[in-house]
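Amino acid chain
________________
===
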Amino acid sequence: MKGEYQHTLDAKGRLFIPAKLREELGDSFVVTKGLDECLFLYPQEAWDKLEENIRQLPMSKSRSLQRFFLSSAADVTIDKQGRIVVPPVLRTYAGLDHDVTIIGVSERAEIWNRQKWEDYNNALDAGSIAQAMEDLGF
């Protein structure tokens, strides 16, 4: 998944998911807490793999991950208008009120409060990005 999309969340917590992302996420998928106060969207197959990987870890290492990702996870289904309902607990966690940014990030998508996304991007510097690329062999 890739791309950046600007959308709005309505008063009932409904959010339009861009068609390009819907194709990769499927008609139903999992939404959960993400890192950096955003939400992660996983296609069912990727979610199953993540859950299995967490289960394979020793309890001493996995319990925090289980509590963070699994306790807040929700199965969502796309409606006829291409929207999902973001559960209230997840809207609160990510600070989603009206303006949101949805991004594709490889095997998952993320939903951000638009201002938090802009702040996050403004805090990035070219040196740290260049170092990360070098570490990965680019």
Summary: The longest helix spans residues 44-56.
